[in-house]
Amino acid sequence: MIEHLPALIPVSLILFAFLAGFLRLVNPRLSRYSAILGALTAFVFSIVVTIDVLKNGSISYHFGNWPPPYGIEFVLDTLTCFMVLVITGIGSTLLMFPTKPGFMIDEQQQSPLYTLVLLLLTGLCGMVLSGDLFNVYVFMEISSLTTFALVSLGGPKAAVASFRYLIMASIGACCYLLGLGFIFFTVGSVNMADVLQLLPAVYDSPSIIGGALLMITGLGLKMALFPFHTWLPDAHSYAPPIVAALLAAVQIETSAYIAIRLLLNVFTPALMSDLLPITQIIGWLGAAGIIFGSVMAIAQTNFKRMLAYSTVAQVGFVTLGLGLANPLGMVGGILHILAHALMKSCLFLVAGSISHHSGITNIQDFQGLGRRMPWTMAAFTVAALSMIGIPPTAGFFSKWYLLLGSLDNNNWVFLVVILASTLLNAIYFFRLIEKIYSPGDAQVEAGTQSKDLPKNMLVPIIILAVAILLMGAVSVWLVNNLLMPVVGGL
Amino acid sequence: MVTTSYMPLAAILISLVAIIFIIALSKKPNLREAVTILAAIGKLAIILSMLPAVLDSRYPALNLIDLAPGIQFALKVDEAGMIFALLASALWLVTSFYSIGYMRKLDEKRQTRFYASFALCLSSTIGIAFSANLFTFYIFFEVLTIATYPLVTHEGTEEALKAGRKYLAYLLTGGVVLLAAIVYTYQITGTLDFQAGGILSTDTLPFQIAILFSLFVVGFGFKSAIMPLHSWLPSAMVAPTPVSALLHAVAVVKAGVFGMIRAVGFILGPETINSLGLSGILSIAAGITIIVASLLAFHQDNLKLRLAYSTIGHLSYIILGVSLLSQAGWTGGVMHMFNHGVMKITLFLCAGAIFVAHRYTNISQLNGIGRKMPITMAAFTIASLGLAGIPPIAGFVSKFLIVQGTMDNEQFVYAAVILLSGLLNAGYFFPIVYRAFFKKPASGGGVKEAPYLMLIPIVVTGALSLLLGIFPNAIFNLYDLASSVAQLVMGGL
Amino acid sequence: MTDITIHYSYIIIIILLAIGLYGMLGKRNLIKKCIGLTIFQTAIFLFFIEGGLKDGGTVPVIDPSLGVEAINYINPLPHVMILTAIVVSTATTGVAMALLLKIYRKYNSLEEDVIMERMKE
After folding, report:
1. What are the b/e assignments for B398-423, b being 16+ CB within 10 Å?
2. Which of B23, B162, B183 to mutate to test the interface with A (most CBs of A within 10 A)?
3. Top-confidence residue, B448 or A223
4. How many Cβ pairs within 8 Å bridge chains A and B?
5. Which of B124, B304, B308, B434 is the most exposed, having the fewest neighbouring CB atoms within 10 Å of its CB?
6. In whole angstroms, what is the distance from residue B324 CA to residue B330 CA?
7. Burial A147-163 (b: 16+ CB within 10 A, else e)
8. Distance, in angstroms, between A287 CA and closest chain B CA?
């Protein structure tokens, strides 16, 4: 069975998706349990597959035993394993959060919620595992369609936001497809490894440049790269908390990962810097995104909107790492995918719990929450410190590699941008921390005793907070074993 | 010679573990305070137990996990770290007793948060002292900034919150600049381990050294309160006095100065700095700070503010001593780190006692306080004499060595600066003493000291200042440790 | 000049892309945006099909008279990919319609500026 694991990861998720759909008719609660079970199964599979890849090297799985480039191929190297672990791990943790506060929906309501979530995870895993470019498009659209529906669960405003998001995401996907077409017609294949071999022969042609540009633009739209980020603040702030967490933590990062994959394994950086300074452009856009996102976040009064703009900034980190195109920079960017996933999920879950528990959505109303919800606010503080980049939390470690990578390229501007973002993030997070821990309204405090969240809401939040603290210790193992083998060759 | 030992880790962890108990026992104040005291005793005991080994040049060290390729979480107890750790842990024990008295007498709120934050601060301080490389150092350095924030804003008033914001703005900026320095160091040398005499090789280009030097000085300069990066310190005086005493006379500011010592002596190296004449810049900055801070101290009527500016001045004594790049200067500077801590904390503890007993905060209110609080003011007098550099109190020894350092390098300007500052010190301390003992008090009444829990620590630190002045090597072998540091760092020159 | 007329199909595709993009970004009515999206996607499909054409090639079903030389048949792969893409496009349009229904039910309008106004209330 081990040799079928690469396929089993998305397949098991689809199976559980439909199971969840059927069980919903019986009892909605069963639907949720099957979803958790499905995500956990996929997570376990990912772990097994990672162990296998670490021992035996990359896996190449051929569907229907058709050899590539004729057939569809799933390729698993250590970097892919890393991403699959992140997707399924974060997915499982988020699913543990109860339905009502997480999705802003009653359990009894008629909507195939968990089916959609599992299909989203399927799409993301499939994107990551694919060995050819068109397959990536298919799974990308699978995941996007589910997100359109999931975002709109947040109410009518969310529906409007979701529509905007739909338009922009579809433009992005179409650009990707168009670019894919250019590459395909010039080179003759869509299989990634194949294209890698065939490209150097034709890399002078304008269609390759155009194709590459279009594909990167398409992915840029999907991952909210500055200046294509305009759909993100609305979509993430109106969406239900778990959806926003899934989007910000996993979906955007996966699109970023595909861009990284393209630049690493298809259009190699050596090639690219000859043709067109794509990596440079992406790097600068990333830096711009960091500054823009952080500054806009400072200006927000709604908590979730603040987090959404902060996501724009954090994606900027990943693209900055990509833009540096050297091993340390890439490692920093990819590690930041994990760090950001942990931090943002924790923050969005906290946002959801607070708005569900006390109806608070504006940061002015956060006054005195430290007393009333001590554990939740402790987790929030950990996540906030990580976003700022204080050691020993997760956020610091990815910044370390990014800083080293910037220095390797003698890019002082990037260095300053990264350091400045620490201070900018500190402004809006400490503004909140100050409010949280100062004495609250006497009346409100007298009314609600120290009523922290019920256990089932706290558990995923605490798990994520602990993971943020521990990630630093684990990061070296991740870097050495999972990331460097793939990236080190640059 | 390096020996592996878990003691350094134990010293750091003991107060981290204490935090859990402090929070758990928040409803039982006596047990909770007992946890703090036990942790402090334990910490001091562990650190003292390592003293013989360090004096013998057998350094306890521990390499834990890798934190980044090629960089480990590593601890090592060398002479410099031992001095800092002894200072912090000994004074934590003293201050803990004092805090109990202070907080209870004033019936302060949020005491659990207070004691827990204190424990975290001390963990990070010892972590800073025992770090073997810049990476580990940086982790604890930043944690210290965050851990002290709840203490600075403890009162929860608008003024406290503003002070907190300023505090964070300054110190986080320093942290960010320091990170740039660390990353750059790593890129140039490929290592971050502290080594006496510096880790920069002779191939390092002058402009690289210059940039590194500036980054380190600015990065550490915030916490060391060099002017003009100092203004967070006076604002932070809004915190409760135990916080001002331990953290802003001992832990946080000394961490900054300690960082400066590490940077100059163990990363950049005196040879490299000397070759570019950069030490002169540092000496100038320190010299200016000393004079200006002393002058500003004159203007302050609020007692704690006067003490704050005095601290700023004395921190630059240490930096001046270190920047002189002579053995005597180094010995003096490093010793002053300890001596100043002991003397300054005495003064702060007295200020707190005066506040608790009589609610006076300003010097103009202190007429005749000597008659009402004789023991407190006696300690105050001893400590101020020491800060002014009058033998046989501790301050004299370190000052003398620093002046000797200036003579060694024929930098007579700085000798003049120190002597002038000594006069200024006297100028702003003695009026207080005079007022206390020789002026008539505004209101009558007999002797009313602060509670014993507060009084005894004052006596202890005051006596310690005196003892260390007469026997610099008493208890802690301070002089030996300091001269070893100087020897190791400056040995080459 | 002759080169351009040979590639007239690509010019039409570009025009369609431009129309689609204008529809999505320039029009205020949400349905018109959907239409623009469909036009945009269709243009891309046409691009793929056009690219798969070969001079003198015929439908890719093996004709005994022509044998199995691949050169006689046009490339079926783009067609297959586009079939998938069409399905995706249809699904997207379906979801878009569902969203529009929800929006209409709440805000009673499908004009973007009117909806933005009503959202503020």
Report:
1. bbbbbbbbbbeeebeebbebbeebbe
2. B183
3. A223
4. 71
5. B434
6. 8
7. bbbbbbbbebbbbbbbb
8. 17
Q: Tell me the pLDDT band of B54, cut-offs 50, 70 and 90.
A: confident
Q: Is residue C110 over pLDDT 60?
A: yes
Q: What's the DSSP call for residue A450?
A: S
With an 8 Å Cβ cutoff, is A485 touching chain B?
A: no
Which position has the higher pLDDT, B393 or A100? B393
For residue B401, being part of any structural domain is answered with yes
Q: Does C18 touch chain A (CB under 8 A)?
A: no
Using a CB-CB cut-off of 8 Å, the residues of chain A touching C41 are 170, 174
Domain ranges, ordered by start, for chain A: 2-487
pLDDT of residue B138: 92
With bands split at pLDDT 50, 70 and 90, how would you rate the model's confidence at C31?
A: very high
Convert A279-290 into a string of H (helix), E (strand) and C (coil).
Answer: HHHHHHHHHHHH
Q: Is the ipTM of this complex over 0.90?
A: yes
**B161/A438 touch (CB, cutoff 8 Å), yes or no:** yes
Question: pTM of the entire structure?
Answer: 0.89
Domain that residue B440 falls in: 277-493
Residue B11 has pLDDT above 90, yes or no: no
Look at residue C87 in the predicted model and tell me its pLDDT.
94
Q: Are strands A73-76 and A59-62 parallel, antiparallel or unpaired?
A: antiparallel
A436 close contact with B: CB closer than 8 A: no
Q: How far is A154 from chain C (nearest CA, A)?
A: 12
C2-120 classified as CATH 1.20.1330.10: no
Q: From B216, B322, B194, select the one nearest B266 (Cα to Cα).
A: B194
Residues of chain A scoring pLDDT < 70: 1, 106-110, 270-276, 440-451, 488-490
Q: Which residue has the higher pLDDT, B257 or B4?
A: B257
pLDDT digits (tens, 9 = 90+) for C60-103: 787 777 777 777 788 888 888 999 999 999 999 999 999 999 89
- Give the minimum alpha-carbon distance from A115 to chain B in angstroms, rounded to a whole number: 40
Q: Where are the domains of chain C?
A: 2-120
Collapsed DSSP state (helix, strand, coil) of residue B204: coil
- Cis check: omega of the bond before A10, within 30 degrees of 0: no
CA distance linking residue A191 with residue B208, whole number of Å: 47
Of B138, B143, B180, the CB nearest to A415: B180
Overall domain count for chain B: 1
pLDDT level of residue B237 (50, 70, 90 thresholds): confident
For testing contact with chain A, the best of C102, C110, C113, C116 (most A CBs within 10 A):
C102
Q: Which residues pair with B63 in a beta bridge?
A: B74
Of the residues B12, B27, B67, the best mutation for testing chain A's interface (the one with the most A CB atoms within 10 Å of its CB) is B67
So what's the pLDDT on residue C45?
93
**Quick check: A181 and C48 CB within 8 A?**
yes
